[in-house]
Amino acid sequence: MRNIIIIILASILIGFAYNFLLIPHEILSGGLSGIAMMLGIVTPVNTGVLNFLLNLPLLIIGYMKLGKRFIGYTILSVVVLSISLYVIPVYKATQEPILASLFGGVIIGVGAGMIFKAAGSTGGFDIVAMLLSRKRDFPLGVLLSALNGIVVAISGFVFSWDAALLTLVSIYATGKVVDTIHTSHIKLTLMIITSKGEEMKNNLLAKLYRGITIIDAKGAYSGEGREVLITVITRYQLAEVKSMIKETDDKAFVNILQTSEVIGVFDRRNG
Fold first, then answer.
1. What is the CA radius of gyration of the chain?
2. Are residues 93 and 152 in the same domain?
3. Is residue 268 part of a domain?
4. Could you give the dihedral angle defined by the CA atoms of residues 28, 29, 33 and 37, in that order, rounded to the nearest 10 degrees?
């Protein structure tokens, strides 16, 4: 329930940033939301409706290919954001485009970071990048940057190159704030010590799509047998993984270490 409330409030916050700061100045955000904003400006169709329609195919594919809890939270975020864009009036909160771009990007970053910490996403290119990264060895950050670069180029051709540069400022500000709040690019090594090793392994493999190494161990004090499960994840996945561990074995001992580098296949489904 806590995550659901956070996602709802954060999505509404992003909706205010779009309609009060970015859209009045023809500044786009990153991802499919940026494309929805552009279409909403140049056509009579509401941005909220466009945002939902553009995300709908990806949400269906993501539901089949990615974790159901992650996609469930993402669907909630997309629906609430789309409704917010439809309900909240477009209002020019500032006459200065650069202020609108900067503060709009910061506010969107705060909202997106909160949603990421709650184990969800804002949909769009996040889902595209995660799906592509399972087929190729490209890092998510590179994929997202390339996809957002397309949005910036479109903004320049459709509106003006001033608008494109302001869009770039907005996307950059959003990314920096998200990194500050969530640091999704950071890799983490998990050492899970549990008496329910087989059940823990099956649950993690079914939902996490990461390789897991299992080591037999024995408690020094109790002398009882334990299994140590070792895996590497992104911080993006941490909230969901902690929830899965608690559901499987609420007495499990978990050591979480920040990983400076990963060598070998990591981003694939079985990485």
1. 20
2. yes
3. no
4. -20
Q: What is the DSSP letter of 23?
A: G
The alpha helices in 1-139, defined as continuous H runs, are: 2-17, 31-42, 47-65, 68-87, 97-117, 125-133
Q: Which of 164, 181, 198 is the last residue of a domain?
A: 181
Q: Please, which residues bridge with residue 258 across strands? A: 188
Contact predicate 24/37, CB 8 Å: no
- For the chain, helix, strand, coil in percent to 5 are 65, 10, 25
269 falls within a domain: no
Number of domains the chain contains: 2
pLDDT in tens, the chain (271 residues): 888 999 999 999 999 999 999 989 988 887 788 888 888 888 888 888 988 898 888 888 877 777 677 788 888 998 999 999 899 999 999 999 999 999 999 998 898 888 877 877 787 777 776 666 555 555 555 566 677 778 888 888 888 888 888 888 888 888 778 777 765 456 788 999 998 988 998 888 887 767 788 999 888 888 888 999 998 887 767 777 888 899 899 889 999 887 766 666 554 443 3
Residue 252 φ then ψ, to 5°: -65, 145
Domain residues for the domain of 80 are 2-181
Choose the final residue of a domain: 152, 181, 210. Answer: 181
Enter the pTM of the model. Answer: 0.66
DSSP string spanning 168-197? HHHHHHHHHHHHHHT-TT-EEEEEEEES-H
